[in-house]
Amino acid sequence: MSTTPEAVAALPVTERPKLLEASRVTKRFGGLVAVNDVSFAVPQRSIVSIIGPNGAGKTTFFNMLTGLYTPSTGRVSFDGKETTQSRPDQITALGMARTFQNIRLFGTMSALENVLVGQHARMKSGIGGSIFRTPRTRKEEQLVREKGREMLSFVGIRGRFDDLAINLSYGDQRRVEIARALASDPKLLLLDEPTAGMNPQESENLTTFMRKLRDELNLAILLIEHDMKVVMGVSEYVTVLDHGEKIAEGDPVSVRNNPRVVEAYLGKQGLEEAGG
After folding, report:
1. Which site in 93, 99, 133, 202 is 20 to 30 Å from 196, CA atoms measured?
2. Residue 258 belongs to what domain range?
3. What is the model's pTM?
4. Which residues, listed in sequence order, are joined to residue 246 by a DSSP beta bridge?
5. Could you read off the pLDDT of 55-110 as tens digits, one per residue?
6. Domain for residue 44, yes or no?
7. 101 in a domain, yes or no?
């Protein structure tokens, strides 16, 4: 079977090779079980979403995938390598990048400087080169700055490379954060509530942009999102968590119509009032 991006994209999402896999992952904090026995996969060149009500365990699950938390039990692998015990920097070097629910830019640094931070995992120059300003180091820094400008232009931040991050609009700050993640050359991009705080037009623009990322950069995207219009509009596959457990998964239409999913969002009383 051909593994070119075009061939992979032509396959149904459930038949594409797996890029990320989590097997029976659990996370305990003392007596609290935040995520319980969840198995999950992200196929290559796909856009998949994790949804669920507040407190469902979505961000905790993200944090285990990216190495911020170590699973209490279970196994995580990325691109064929086990990453269950790996540090965040090791996982980033393998090709996984993320954004956060609350924007984490350096406000008093420029948009370009923020993106340069994201390229650290790919830079070869060491401390000595930085101190003595060797030709190799200067050349690498030039290339890094060129790539930073390229990433900012790609996400739609043109002509504002030197603007302080704190002076950018909320939507543009989100784009800079995505550019910083893209600067690490990821194979998988994890977006945690990317449309939080955006107006409807900004959310719609970001939905279109996520498809562009997948199609033009051959990325897989894993999305946590509360805006169901965004989820249903962009996702090829959806997994639903509630109280740390997986209660449903499948294509967006089947998940949206799943009674357990409706109940998780509306509650039993709301479900009855809605005719469920």
Report:
1. 93
2. 1-95+186-276
3. 0.86
4. 241
5. 899 999 999 999 999 999 999 999 999 999 999 999 998 999 998 877 888 889 99
6. yes
7. no
